[in-house]
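Hey, I'm writing a tutorial for new members on how sequence and structure tokens pair up, and I'd like a real worked example in the thread rather than a made-up one. If someone can provide the structure for the chain below, I'll link this post from the tutorial.
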Amino acid sequence: MARLADYFVLVAFGPHPRGSGEGQGHILQRFPEKDWEDNPFPQGIELFCQPSGWQLCPERSPPTFFVAVLTDINSERHYCACLTFWEPAEPTQEAVCTEDAAGREEEADAGGPVRLPPAAAVPPGQLFAPKTLVLVSRLDHVEVFRNSLGLIYTIHVEGLNVGLENVVGNLLTCIIPLAGGSQLDSVEDGVRTISLGAGDRQVIQTPLTDSLPISRCSVALLFRQLGIANVLSLFCAALTEHKVLFLSRSYQRLSDACRGLLALLFPLRYSFTYVPILPAQLLEVLSTPTPFIIGVNAAFQAETQELLDVIVADLDGGTVTVPECVHIPALPEPLHSQTHSVLSMVLDPELELADLAFPPPTVSTSSLKMQDKELRAVFLRLFAQLLQGYRWCLHMVRIHPEPVIRFHKAAFLGQRGLVEDDFLMKVLEGMAFAGFVSERGVPYRPTDLFDELVAHEVARMRADENHPQRVLSHVKELAEQLYKNENPYPAVAMHKVQRPGEASHLRRAPRPFPRLDEGTVQWIVDQATAKMQGAPPAVKAERRTTVPSGPPMTAILERSSGLHGNSARRLEVVRNCISYVFEGKMLEAKKLLPAVLRALKGRAARRCLAQELHLHVQQNRAVLDHQQFDFVVRMMNCCLQDCTSLDEHGIAAALLPLVTAFCRKLSPGVTQFAYSCVQEHVVWSTPQFWEAMFYGDVQTHIRALYLEPAEDRDPAQVGEAAAEDERSALDVASEQRRLWPTLSREKQQELVQKEESTVFSQAIHYANRMSYLLLPLDTSKSRLLRERAGLGDPESASNSLLTSSMAGSVAESYDTESGFEDAETCDVAGAVVRFINRFVDKVCTESGVTSDHLKGLHVMVPDIVQMHIETLEAVHRESKRLPPIQKPKLLRPRLLPGEECVLDGLRVYLLPDGREEGVGGSAGGPALLPAEGAVFLTTYRVIFTGMPTDPLVGEQVVVRSFPVAALTKEKRISVQNPVDQLLQDGLQLRSCTFQLLKMAFDEEVGSDSAELFRKQLHKLRYPPDVRDTFAFTLGSAHTTGQPPRATKDKGPSLRTLSRNLVKNAKKTIGRQYVTRKKYHPPSWEHRGQPPPEDQEDAISVSEELEPSTLTPSLALKPSDRMTMSSLVERACCRDYQRLGLGTLSSSLSRAKSEPFRISPVNRMYAICRSYPGLLIVPQSVQDNALQRVSRCYRQNRFPVVCWRSGRSKAVLLRSGGLHGKGVVGLFKAQNAPSPGQSQADSSSLEQEKYLQAVVSSMPRFADASGRNTLSGFSSVHMGGHVPSPRARVTTLSNPMAASASRRTAPRGKWGSVRASGRSGVLGGDVGSRLAGRDMLAPPQANGAPPDPGFLRPQRAALYIIGDKAQLKGVRPDPLQQWELVPIEVFEARQVKTSFKKLLKACVPGCPALEPSPAFLRSLEDSEWLTQIHKLLQVSVLVVELLDSGSSVLVSLEDGWDITTQVVSLVQLLSDPFYRTLEGFRLLVEKEWLSFGHRFSHRGAHTLAGQSSGFTPVFLQFLDCVHQVHLQFPMEFEFSPFYLKFLGYHHVSRRFRTFLLDSDYERIELGLLYEEKGERRGQQACRSVWEYVDRLSKRTPVFYNYMYAPEDTEVLRPYSNVSNLKVWDFYTEESLAEGPPYDWELAQGPPEPPEEERLDGGAPQSRRRVVWPCYDSRPRAQPDAISRLLEELQRLETELGRPPERWKDTWDRVKAAQRLEGRPDGRGTPSSLLVSSMPHHRRSLGVYLQEGPVGSTLSLSLDSDQSSGSTASGSRQAARRSTSTLYSQFQTAESENRSHEGTLYKKGAFMKPWKARWFVLDKTKHQLRYYDHRVDTECKGIIDLAEVEAVAPGTPTMGAPKTVDEKAFFDVKTTRRVYNFCAQDVPSAQQWVDQIQGCLSDA
């Protein structure tokens, strides 16, 4: 029995002690005055009576009632029912209030309880004070409280004749039965009727079960106010421990909402702060860090605004606001959607019928109270589904004296398949669930509705899932039970309580509420207490039973475990493999192992493995031999690698006993157990795993303790024994708890002791087990500490998921701490001891082990660990002596001559990266990766060689390498070793040659070796000086860094000369340069820097410089002359002479008629260090003026001519950008000396003069006077960019828009070239517009220029293409002879970032999760193709301008990146010479090397450039050339391979060609001019060009067989991104031999000819399988000519045309080829393209080669020119006939064509004259003839040995009519006379001479 009310309190308004306007509550009276012993008086009641604060009111308000909840220190809830009414304020109270009336008004504004006075007659100025009656109870009977307080108020207001003291006394002494007690045998006991002695009667019904919450209508109201989704999210928030705040203007609503939310959480209890009504004074509670459910009056909403992590539910507005930083996990699907739909069926039954054609007339809706129970039933079902089977995951740790129960969270989640589920994870970790386990885990206790539901109804719920009506009926059944619990006896609910009359509060009260007589009340209370003491105590007798467990989890969840379901075949493979291992059939096991390792990804297979291994363990021990041991360990490791730290599927738990069972004998007395080989898994360092394992084992032992052994029983009981064994630990515990009270005290003590010692012995056992798995075999390695971050500190112990960075940092911190040598081992031991001690502490205190035992354990643990370390030392020592497992032999890589190994092979595994070809992938093919081998570091490359680990791939060698210099990113990774699945250290190396080495080090490679490898790699990648790079150290005798030995020379050698040159240059340059050897972008003239003090005016400085720079060239010193002659031999000079841009005669005098001259002004590199020594400048400009001009440009790179169009004579100039006129310009101007002209002005005058000179040098524009302009207006829309009204700025815009405007107004304005962002592009037809093409022709698609129209006359002589930002500084041209074309270009850093993204896209580091679009997306993100597009677009624009006769000056950035790209592309597109091999070389030497592209800086070649990173400007240029090559494949003499070759070697540092940043630096190192007299013989090539020449003599790999240039072809490629292709250089890979660009390495050993094959059978087929990514496909596939001919044949048959002559010839050649068989090889490398054919097979144009690799056809069209004498210097060289093309590679037996041409030949007797192609071969002494020039098989041969005479002939019948008689001649042989006729007389004469010459030679 319990008291209905504990205290009755009367609280009234009183003044605030500190005199503020607000009042405060004062307790006037409380009854009883003494506290109850069992229930002290709660503090702070007065705050809760008026939660919004105590205030006076200008009017009488109606009485209010609400229930506040206070929670005491013991988590007991006290319900405070408050009834408040208002009485006229007493004078003292009013005085308080008038002091601060303003405060009250503010309060009124804020929406406080201040109301305007009613019309009733209230004296003006009368105020009313609140008074509250409070009832404090521990029971929750809201209605009874409302009625009782209401009765007291009514008696007071209505003046009833009843003593208030009696009513209060009766109220305080009212005793009611407790819920769910056994005394509810009759209705009278369960239903208590009470009366307070005022003629009233109330019925109190106690609920049937105490544990079920009472909700009345609160849940239904909550759903009405907030809606389904909002309530669900609040439900999840409360369960996952978030802060929830309710807002409402009604206090009762707040109480109800909080009560409703708590009711929904059943069976979990909310254990955090719970305050349904929070008083205003306590609002700071809201900023508490702990979770809460709190209600606050909506008046204080503003105060809640700044709470960042609180979920606010506004009950009045129906909204729930979740802050951004809060994530509420949702219910797992499908539960969420099912719950949602059932809730909507309950709340809105009409929804289902809304669409019916004939809806039923009425739908029965439940009453609000019933609906409330239905909603609760839905949530009850939800919990039953969430927690089904939870009892099977409870561990009974102790039964006596009190049950100790633990929940195995991981097993529960694993069995439910909800490991990843955020919601359930959080719920299980929460406090509420911990309470649930300790309260409901108990096996013997009273049960309630939830226990029945979760045990027996789960199967029904699953069956009903898809039947909404059945679900609804189940919900209704549950709702009935919940309703019955709250209202057990609905029939007797009759109340009779007096209420005050209507508006009674407005009547003038007769008097204030009286003061009650304490004595009377106390007397009534005492009477009742005395009576109670006499009565027997009411014991709450509970009906306790064994709690049902329900079906085990496996029976509930018969779901397949995802992809790897329980495939029987897989399990069979696992079983077979294990049985093979134990039967010793090792070969069989080895075959199955890869399949087993793959199968072990599936959970079922892992379980199966554990079960099978258990079968092979006898008496806790299984001794294996070495091979068996290795197999078992590998399979265990594979199993464990996928275990998370929680081990939710119990795999690690199943293997734990096995790792201490399997062992092998290493030597007498030394045994190695499996645990020493499976330690590298995260699960072993997780405390939760060990706790769960420990509790599981303890439960097993405790259960065994109470199950009597069978032999003790009498025979009758043996039958029961079997049944007994079936009983679970919970059943046993339940039985024991039932018997406990009946046992004697001694027996109880004995049981407690037994249990305690069981736990203790298990703790010792686990301390041993843990030391086994935590102490590494080699304790000197502190890997344990590195990888088990969890051991180090308790915080990270719980979530010890591994990240490589964390692992690394922990390792370092441990290493740095250890001050002495042996510290590491101690540290390992110390860490393990700490870890085990923490574990022991936790489990022993939880399981109630005595403190003495615990102390003993703490003493034992260090001994256990130490002992184990000692045994491990012996094991470690012996295991080192084991014969190592046969690892594959390390394959040594082939090295280049001069390449040396720096670090010998470290064993590694090459892992697959993101490219899928190597692992089979979508392309098919075998999985070449992962491969097992070694990584080598040489002076030149990083090389991996190895074999695939998959035995099914076969003995393929896998090679991947890249030059050290190409390394762009190196990062440590932690990866799984693919063989034994251990976590290993690894490295990921990425190179700018698009290679990626992702390696895991083998365990035999120590961390120090790996570190050494990294350090050496870094040292080689960034040498301190360029002289330490491979290109310099290669083949050099002297050691690095020392100058070569000086040799005595008679004359000054070139090397000493180059040194003098540098010395002079340094002198000449003047003081400001002396200290700088290399410059960095800001360069010498720091742009805003004032001139040095010793120079008065920058203009005059040039005159004051040493005379030697500016002396006339005739006065050169002899050494300077020598320099000059060397400079003249440079590429630039040769090209200038070819272009007719001026010559250097020996006297250096030049004809004044030439417009341009070669100026030696920079020969000492004094004016501009990054320019070549000789420059082309206008004839009229003097050398001394150049010094001044150069100052206007960045890096002093002033405009110089680099190319001239042969046709239009327009010139192309290049320069650096102009110095801006921005802030820097202003700064300069301020510091300039005031007298005379300012520096800026004079320099821009110089610049203007110079540009004028350039314009005048052009023949067409020399005499023009400004009429020839593109448009005569200044571009107004340029606004700020226009320097003055006269400037004309040409900009470019959308081509269509511009052409449209052109149609309306022939002189429309230009738009501007916006390259904004990614899509901004130059109009494709811009060039043609600038060139003045007619725009009426619509522009073509693809960004192609429109058809050439007529040229407009108005055109500027010179266009300056510059960066928008820089062109502001250009002065307008007074005669408008030049125009500015501002464009927006990308900077070098954008190229760098774009390249990084491109590299990641083409060579991703880890396999992509989704298929191919990812590549295209990342390719687009890189914006690489957009940059290529912009470059091509600008270049085409310049080509158009030059082609139309205007000159162009490209003046972008510093003039060495984008300028170089554009200028080179323009020359390549305009001049066919640059599309030959010789020309392209010249172009690169001239524009890239001589004009100072900073190869070393952009390639980060040395330590100094490390920070700047790799910026592939040259590679981007090559990519552009490749795009043009793709669009014009017949225009280039070189093949795409040549471009890839240069792309690879410009970063490889194998050759010196692409080192250093300018000619000046190359001279400084003595690189530019090699010693003439040096005989280098066969030493390694230092120049890439030399290498290309050498290689070309052996193989035509650099030649493009489709080369057939058109005569005057200016190329205009499409430039839209859609027309560009990703260069295959970025994506291709050849794992057979690494990148194919080091030709010596790419050739495999020659295969033996077929005749020598051993089998002696039929010759093998020469076909071979070509794998993508393994073989280089271009080299293994059929050659290109065969492909083209086959394509031709296919097209002919498609078009239905008869095959042409070539087909017959082709077939005959192939037939002959097959018959002849293979000639003797001459030992040449069996390259695909190197011929070893005998001469007779090489008829005129084509020869075939049956190589060892495949039938490959090569071209060899030899002419009488030897390889060196190609006339490439002339213009004609670009259009050489195809026959001269391949003269460069002649093999020894090649024929020599002395003379060839067409002759008419008279056939034999009676045959007609026919034109034949004749070839005179002096070497073979024969005259051959063919049907056609291209034929491969000759029709006949005239042996010159048989020729007797050659004489003039006469025309015979049928001879050609139009030919002169003198063109006939006869050749008389011993057999017959041949009659010939040439096309004309001279050629006949030539033939006769040639033949006679041949005869006379013989």
